[in-house]
Give the backbone structure.
Amino acid sequence: MNEMVDAIVLEFEDKVEKALHHLTEHLAGIRTGRASPALIDSIKVEAYGTMTPLNQVSHISVPEARQLLVKPFDLSIIKDIERALLTSDLGLTPANDGKLIRLTLPPLSEEQRKKLVVKVKDMAEQARIALRNSRRDANKHADQALKEHHMTEDANHDLHDRIQEIIKTAETKIESILGRKTEEIMTD
């Protein structure tokens, strides 16, 4: 019986961690007033016949607060990198000097900041939905185990409580992540 409970909890905790990691990863790509390599890390570049993340074909650094520097490992793909940056939804214009690419981030207007905060809140809500779906699945597994007499009613009730505690902790983390990112966007 204990193995069944542990298996359900472990699977649920894994899904919760993945949802939190996914949210954090996506929020790193949201532009704020400061430059960050995470902003362009995952942009796909067509290099050597395959779509490859930018951070795997170049070194990305931040020489100044509002500037990113992209130095390709192989200069033959610099035009491909420039094209990928131009077609990305960041709205940045790359400056290519033949050896490296500079991206200068213009300051965000108040309206742009507010739009980004709305986008961040939507992402947080998607993470909450993923958590609720995971909770529903875990509770279904618990109820199924109870039906099949793999656990007692008390164990089932305790498992539901434990799942709810994990959800509450994860929701607190989401609120914390959301608060930090919102503050980061709204301050210059």
Notes: The CA atoms of residues 140 and 146 lie 10 Å apart. The radius of gyration is 22 Å.
